[in-house]
Specification:
Distance between the termini of chain A: 61 Å
CATH class of chain B: Alpha Beta
Number of domains of chain B: 1
CATH architecture of chain B: 2-Layer Sandwich
CATH superfamily of the largest domain in chain A: Beta Polymerase, domain 2
Number of strands of chain B: 5
Number of domains of chain A: 4
Shape of chain B: globular
Number of helices of chain B: 10
Domain Exonuclease (chain B): 38-220
Keywords (chain B): Exonuclease, Hydrolase, Nuclease
Protein name (chain B): 3'-5' exonuclease
Strand content of chain A: 5-15%
Largest interface: A-B, 22 and 23 residues
CATH topology of the largest domain in chain A: Beta Polymerase, domain 2
Largest sheet of chain A: 4 strands, antiparallel
Strand content of chain B: 15-25%
CATH superfamily of chain B: Ribonuclease H-like superfamily/Ribonuclease H
Largest sheet of chain B: 5 strands, mixed
Shape of chain A: globular
CATH architecture of the largest domain in chain A: 2-Layer Sandwich
Pfam families (chain B): RNase_T
CATH topology of chain B: Nucleotidyltransferase, domain 5
Helix content of chain A: 40-55%
Oligomer: heterodimer
Distance between the termini of chain B: 42 Å
Order of helices and strands of chain B: HHEEEHHHEHEHHHH
Strand order of the largest sheet of chain A: 1-8-3-6
CATH class of the largest domain in chain A: Alpha Beta
Strand order of the largest sheet of chain B: 3-2-1-4-5
GO molecular function (chain B): exonuclease activity
Chain lengths: 618, 235
C-alpha cells in the first residue's frame, strides 16, 4: 500500500493532499489492467464510475469531429482521466482508449467526491471545465507567490494618519506641517477633503527642495503652484507590487491610496520595500545612477538576475514584463539623452520605437534588438543624416549593453525603418490594404510597437491608420489565416512518451496566443499592444468570448512562465537560453499545464477558423 | 483441562459449519467471462518450505471483482505457530517478523472463519501453488480434516503458458529461456510495479496484478472464459 501512496504523492494533485487523505485514497483504490486498444470510457456511453490514474502504460483521448477521429491527448503515468464525466455524472465527452497495455488505479466515485469536498486544491485540480482548470492552475501558482509583494494589499500598508493641506496655504506652512508630523508628503485638497478628483494633489519634501528652494521661489509661494495634481492613486485592494511598479514607472515615491474614491492614506516606496526580503526592482535606479556606458555593460545580466528574482517571488508574467520595460525604458532614455548631448538636439521631434516582444511589454530575458525611428514630417534636409547617425550610435550602444543586433535587420539603422511619420503611415496603410505575405509578416512585428523615447507622439500619428483594420474583412481573414499557421503540437505528446523530442515553447506556444490576441485587437480596433491587455480589451467587441479570451490569457501566462523558468535554468547552468524544452523532463505539473494550455489554444484556433472560414481563402 | 482436551478432539472430527458451507460453493460458472468472476489472491508466509515440517506464520489476501483488484478487501493476519514449535531464526529474518509478534498472533482456529469467508465462492489465485496450497491444505486437514475446495489458478503456470504460446506464435525466440518463477522478477519483467517489503499481503497484491496482466494477454479478443483460463493456469 505504501507503494501506491508514494506513487500518488509524486503527482499533482495528490502531492497537495495531507498524508492521511492520500493514504485513505490508496486504501480505497481499485486496480485494473487494460489490453492494448481496449476502450476504457466511451464517448456518449455510461458515465465514469471512477477517477482513473494511469500507473503504467498510456491512454489516448479521442474526440470525434464529424467523420474524423482525432487523438487530442495522450496520458502517461500519474495522469488522470474520467473526472469530467464523473463530476457531472454524464456520458463521457471523449473516448479513452489504452494505446498500450495499461495498469490504472481507480478511485471510486464516493471517495473522489469526498476528497474534492474536503480539499480545495483537489477540487480545483479536477474541475470539470477546461477553462476553469487553467484558471485554477494559474491561481495555484500565484498563491505560492512571495506574500510580501504579491499578496499584500496596499490597504495593509497604510499606517500613518493622512495630513491634508489647502492648495491656498503657503509652502512654508506645508514645510512646518511636515516637520511637525515627521512626514514627507501631504495631501493637497479642497473640501470635500479626501474625495479624489481633478484638484486632489500631493506635495512632498522633494517638491519643496526641487521646485521651491532650488528654483529660488519665496516661502510664501502657494502650495497649488508647486503641487502635483491630479495625483496618481491606487485603490486599497491593489497589490503592493502594483503600487511599487507604478512608482517606478512614474518615478514617484508617494502614492495616495483610495477606497471607493476617497483617499484613506499614503504609501511610500519604502513602506513597500521594507516588506520584501530582497528587492528585485532595484534596476531602474541603477540605470539612472550609472555614470557612463561602462557601468551599463553588464546591464542584460542584471536584467536576467532581476527576472529570476521576480520569477522566484512568483510574479505574474505581465508584471515581470513591466519591470523589465521600466528598466529598458530607463536605459533607452539614458542612452538617447547622452547621444543627443553628444551630437546636438534633433532637428525635429522624433520617436524611438521598440517592436515585437519589447513593444508588447513581454521582453524578459535576453532578446535581440527590434527598433525603429519615426520623425516629424516637416523635417529639414539634414534630418535623415542626423537620425542615421543617432540610430547607428544607439544600436552600437545597445549592443554594448548586451542586446544583439536583429538578424532580420529590423533596426532603426536600416533606412527603411528610419523614416518620417507620413512614410510610416503610408507603409501601415499598404500593409493593411494589400495584405500580401510580406505585409502580414511586417504587421506581426510593427503592429506591436511601443514608444520608448522622444517628443513625437507616434501613437497619435498611427492610431487612425491602424483603426482601418476594424471591419476590414479581407485583411482580418488573411491575418487569421496567418495566425492559424502554427498549430499546438497535441499529437506530439504520444511520441514524446517514447523519446526525448523537444517542443518549442515560443513558436508552438506563446507566439500562437500573441497572434490570436493581435487578431482580436485589430478586429476590435484596439490600439493596445500587450497580449494580455489586447485579450482583455478586445473580447467585448471582437469575435472572441470572454471565457475564451480569459482562457487564452491564462494559457499565455502559464506558457510564458514555463518558458521563462526554463530559460532561467539554462542561464543558471551557463547555457544559452532557448525556447526548446524536452517534454519528459518537465515536472508532472508543468506537463499538465502545458497540455491544458495547448488544448485551449487549439480550441480557440478551431473557432477562429470557423469564424473566418480560413480554409476557403485562396 | 481434561474437558477442554475432549472438546478439542471433538472439533477435529466434526468439520466446522463454516468449512462445510464453504465446501458447498457455489463456484463461478466456468462458461462466464473471466472478468465477471470473483477471485481471491493469496500469499502465505511460512517457517520453511516443507508443509509437513514447517508451519504457517502469516496469510495475506486481496479480492478481485469485475476485473478490478479491490484494495478495500486487503486482509492480512499473522498465525500463531502450534505450541512448542520453535520458529527458525532464518525465517524470522526473511519475513521481518519477530517471535513476539507471532507468539501473540491469533491461532489458526481463530483465523479460520475470516479466512474461509474470504475464500468462499471465489476462484483462488496463487503464485507457485504447491507451497501456499500445500500449507493451507495441511492446516485444514490436521485441524479439521478438510481441504481447499474451489478452483485454483497458479500465476506461475500462466507465465509458463504465455511463454509457450509466444514461442509457438514466434513472438519470442526459441532459444529464449523459460521465464523466471520468482514472483517479483516476473512482475518486473512485465513492467508491473511490485509492492513494498516481502510480506504476504504485498506479495498477494503483486500476484493479483500479475494475474490481471496475464489474463488480459491471454484474452486478446475479449472472450476468454473461466474454463479456458483454468485450462491455461488451473491447478
Amino acid at each position: 500500500m505504501e507503494e501506491i501512496t508514494s506513487f500518488l504523492t509524486g503527482y499533482p494533485p495528490f502531492d497537495q493532499l495531507p498524508p492521511q487523505a492520500v493514504a485513505r485514497a490508496a486504501r480505497g483504490m481499485q486496480i485494473e489492467y487494460f489490453a492494448t486498444g481496449q476502450t476504457i470510457l466511451e464517448f456518449g456511453g455510461a458515465p465514469a464510475k471512477f477517477l482513473y490514474v494511469v500507473r503504467k502504460g498510456g491512454v489516448d483521448l479521442l474526440r470525434e469531429t464529424g467523420s474524423e477521429i482525432e487523438i487530442f491527448d495522450t496520458l502517461g503515468p500519474g495522469e488522470a482521466f474520467g473526472y469530467p464525466s464523473l463530476i457531472r455524472d454524464q456520458a463521457p465527452a471523449v473516448t479513452v482508449r489504452a494505446h498500450t497495455e495499461t495498469l490504472a488505479y481507480l478511485l471510486p466515485s464516493e471517495l473522489f467526491h469526498r476528497l474534492r469536498d474536503e480539499n480545495p486544491a483537489f477540487h480545483r485540480f479536477f474541475a470539470a471545465v477546461a477553462f476553469d482548470r487553467l484558471g485554477f492552475a494559474l491561481k495555484v501558482r500565484q498563491d505560492r507567490a512571495d506574500p510580501a509583494l504579491f499578496q499584500t494589499r496596499l490597504g495593509d500598508l497604510v499606517r500613518r494618519s493622512l495630513m491634508v493641506i489647502s492648495p491656498d496655504a503657503t509652502v512654508r506652512e506645508a514645510a512646518q506641517l511636515m516637520s511637525k508630523e515627521g512626514i514627507s508628503c501631504l495631501l493637497v485638497d479642497l473640501p470635500p477633503v479626501g474625495v479624489l478628483d481633478h484638484n486632489t494633489g500631493i506635495i512632498t519634501d522633494r517638491d519643496l527642495r526641487n521646485r521651491v528652494l532650488a528654483a529660488g521661489l519665496p516661502a510664501d509661494t502657494l502650495v497649488r503652484e508647486v503641487m502635483t495634481a491630479p495625483a496618481l492613486s491606487l485603490s486599497i485592494d491593489s497589490l503592493a507590487f502594483e503600487g511599487l511598479l507604478l512608482m517606478l514607472e512614474r518615478g514617484i515615491h508617494h502614492l495616495p491610496i483610495s477606497e471607493q474614491g476617497v483617499v484613506v492614506g499614503m504609501v511610500t516606496n519604502t513602506d513597500i520595500l521594507r516588506r520584501q526580503s530582497r528587492s528585485p526592482v532595484f534596476l531602474p535606479r541603477q540605470v539612472d545612477r550609472a555614470t557612463g556606458l561602462d557601468e551599463l555593460r553588464n546591464y542584460t545580466d542584471q536584467v536576467a538576475m532581476t527576472v529570476s528574482g521576480l520569477l522566484d517571488a512568483g510574479a505574474r508574467i505581465a508584471d515581470i514584463g513591466r519591470v523589465v520595460a521600466v528598466a529598458h525604458d530607463a536605459l533607452h532614455r539614458r542612452l538617447l539623452r547622452d547621444i543627443e548631448m553628444e551630437i546636438g538636439p534633433p532637428p525635429v521631434p522624433y520617436a524611438w520605437i521598440v517592436l515585437g516582444s519589447e513593444g508588447r511589454l513581454e521582453q524578459t530575458l535576453r532578446t535581440d534588438q527590434d527598433n525603429a525611428l519615426i520623425y516629424a514630417d516637416d523635417a529639414p534636409p539634414e534630418a535623415p543624416a542626423y537620425f542615421r547617425t543617432l540610430a547607428h550610435m544607439m544600436v552600437e550602444q545597445l549592443v554594448a549593453c548586451g542586446f544583439p543586433r536583429c538578424p532580420g535587420d529590423v533596426m532603426a539603422t536600416n533606412p527603411q525603418w528610419c523614416q518620417p511619420l507620413a512614410s510610416w503611415q503610408a507603409m501601415f496603410r499598404r500593409w493593411i490594404d494589400v495584405p500580401e505575405e510580406e505585409a502580414l509578416m511586417r504587421s506581426s512585428i510593427f503592429f506591436d510597437y511601443r514608444q520608448l523615447y522622444g517628443d513625437l507622439d507616434a501613437e497619435a500619428g498611427l492610431r487612425s491608420v491602424i483603426a482601418r483594420t476594424q471591419g476590414n474583412t479581407i485583411f482580418l481573414a488573411r491575418l487569421a489565416r496567418a495566425a492559424l499557421r502554427a498549430t499546438p503540437p497535441l499529437t506530439f505528446f504520444r511520441s514524446v512518451a517514447l523519446d526525448d523530442e523537444r517542443i518549442d515553447l515560443k513558436t508552438r506556444g506563446t507566439a500562437m496566443v500573441v497572434d490570436l490576441a493581435r487578431l482580436f485587437a485589430l478586429e476590435a480596433g484596439r490600439s493596445e499592444t500587450g497580449t494580455l491587455s489586447r485579450l482583455q480589451a478586445s473580447w467585448p467587441t471582437a469575435s472572441v468570448s470572454q471565457a475564451a479570451a480569459e482562457g487564452l490569457a491564462d494559457a499565455f501566462e502559464l506558457l510564458s512562465l514555463l518558458r521563462l523558468r526554463h530559460q532561467h535554468q539554462q542561464i543558471t547552468r551557463g547555457e544559452e537560453p532557448t525556447n526548446l524544452v524536452v517534454f519528459p523532463q518537465l515536472s508532472p505539473l508543468e506537463r499538465r499545464e502545458l497540455k491544458e494550455s495547448l488544448q485551449i489554444i487549439a480550441r480557440i484556433q478551431r473557432s477562429v477558423a470557423m469564424t473566418y472560414q480560413t480554409s476557403r481563402l485562396g | 483441562m481434561v474437558f477442554l482436551r475432549n472438546w478439542d478432539l471433538f472439533r477435529k472430527r466434526e468439520r466446522p459449519a463454516v468449512l462445510q458451507a464453504y465446501e458447498a460453493g457455489p463456484w463461478p460458472d466456468p462458461r462466464s467471462h473471466w472478468r465477471d468472476a470473483s477471485y481471491v489472491v493469496l500469499d502465505v508466509e511460512t517457517s520453511g518450505l516443507d508443509p509437513r515440517r514447517d508451519v504457517l506464520l502469516a496469510i495475506g489476501l486481496v479480492g478481485i471483482e469485475g476485473g478490478r483488484i479491490r484494495l478495500d478487501t486487503c486482509w492480512r493476519t499473522l498465525v500463531r505457530p502450534p505450541e512448542g514449535f520453535l520458529v527458525d531464526a532464518s525465517s524470522i529474518r526473511i519475513h521481518n517478523l519477530t517471535r513476539a509478534e507471532v507468539a501473540e498472533a491469533p491461532t489458526f482456529d481463530a483465523v479460520l472463519p475470516s479466512l474461509i469467508d474470504h475464500l468462499a465462492r471465489r476462484i483462488l489465485v496463487v503464485h507457485v501453488s504447491q507451497v501456499d496450497v500445500g500449507f493451507l491444505n495441511r492446516a485444514l486437514r490436521t485441524n479439521y480434516g478438510g481441504r481447499l475446495a474451489g478452483p485454483i489458478i497458479d500465476t506461475a503456470r500462466l507465465a509458463m503458458r504465455l511463454h509457450d504460446r509466444a514461442q509457438i506464435l514466434g513472438e519470442i525466440a526459441h532459444e529464449q529461456p523459460a521465464p523466471t518463477i520468482q514472483l517479483r522478477a516476473l512482475a518486473t519483467s512485465m513492467g508491473l510495479p511490485v509492492y513494498g517489503e516481502h510480506d504476504a499481503l504485498n506479495d498477494a497484491l503483486t500476484t493479483a496484478q500479475l494475474f490481471l496482466a496475464q489474463a488480459t494477454r491471454l484474452d486478446p479478443k475479449g472472450n476468454l472464459s473461466i474454463k479456458s483460463l483454468l485450462r491455461s493456469g488451473g491447478v
